[in-house]
């Protein structure tokens, strides 16, 4: 068993070093890897639309065809989100007339309709706590503020001194953190979750594969051997494999942290601005419907036969759980763990729970 362990560790490291080869790069201390690439790297290191340029090793820049150039503040490869800032330090100025993301792989994260107002009362933000004061657009005699469209009626009388500049759908944004965008293609989430390296399958085409980590290559018993430091016979259910994969991922994240000081997945998921970072409590998770698969293993969505969290195929008699609003299925054991840490659906990032709360409040 010890031999198997050593062998599998060697296999794993060889596989990772050859496949990860030339692509991962650093810019300003941040790791840049698939689907992103730096413009100095070979084309096939990144997916189309994910070019970054590294300015003097001080900051990574993202250039969007119709929205212009932004500084990359953070990339969360696991949840597939990126935070970008205006290089001039005034992100709202880039949002006030809308953010045109045409021709990019990105979409706004937690988009919300805001009204931007120009108010002759310079102290308006003190009277209406819910407005977001935009200091970089305001002057001594006027305030530029933004307020969610659905709050406008509530404060209309207090906002009498204000003229409307624009009403636009904007991503979640923060004066320091910038604005959040997300991408769904390519989907490397399962690969990242297992600590693998996501990459193109071949020299042409857009198909991707996962190399190394706990998703491919080595056998299940070798994976378990690595995780436990001891040989474990292959009698585990898929649920257990899923569980171990998460364990492995915890280890991986932790490890990465210490190695490089980069907190890519963690910084992203520890944000609370959108309420997404917090997981759900036990009773809420329990309330999500369970389906037990019958022998036919048929789900209401055809073609949906693999759990996107652990990448295991569903088997008869397994318990699956659904997120009510988006109807995505996962192994219950996988989804429960996921939801404890993150309330968004791993596939579509909807947070049914939170949007419902906003609507009803
Ligand atoms: C990204 O890189 C590709 C390949 O080098 C190039 O064709 C494309 O124009 C670049 N896109 C942007 C937005 O820089
Ligand atoms: C984005 O800008 C381009 C070029 O100006 C325009 O053709 C396109 O319709 C715009 N898309 C949106 C969604 O506004
Ligand atoms: C807001 O209004 C003031 C004058 O009332 C004007 O000088 C300023 O340019 C306006 N700002 C914007 C962003 O519209």
UniProtKB/TrEMBL annotation:
Name listed for the protein in its UniProt record: RING-type E3 ubiquitin transferase
EC number: 2.3.2.27
Gene3D superfamilies: Zinc/RING finger domain, C3HC4 (zinc finger) (3.30.40.10)
PANTHER family (alphabetical): RING-TYPE E3 UBIQUITIN TRANSFERASE, RING/U-BOX SUPERFAMILY PROTEIN
Alphabetic keyword roster: Membrane, Metal-binding, Signal, Transferase, Transmembrane, Transmembrane helix, Ubl conjugation pathway, Zinc, Zinc-finger
Range of residues in the leader sequence: 1-20
InterPro entries listed in its UniProt record: ATL20-22-like, WAK_GUB, Znf_RING, Znf_RING/FYVE/PHD
The protein's annotated pathway: Protein modification; protein ubiquitination
Family from the record: Belongs to the RING-type zinc finger family. ATL subfamily.
Membrane topology (UniProt): Single-pass membrane protein
GO MF annotation list: polysaccharide binding; ubiquitin protein ligase activity; zinc ion binding
Family annotation (Pfam families): GUB_WAK_bind, zf-RING_2
Catalytic activity entry: S-ubiquitinyl-[E2 ubiquitin-conjugating enzyme]-L-cysteine + [acceptor protein]-L-lysine = [E2 ubiquitin-conjugating enzyme]-L-cysteine + N(6)-ubiquitinyl-[acceptor protein]-L-lysine
Limits of the RING-type domain: 307-349
Chief place where the protein resides: membrane
Example of a GO cellular component annotation carried by this entry: membrane
SMART domains: RING (SM00184)
Subcellular location: Membrane
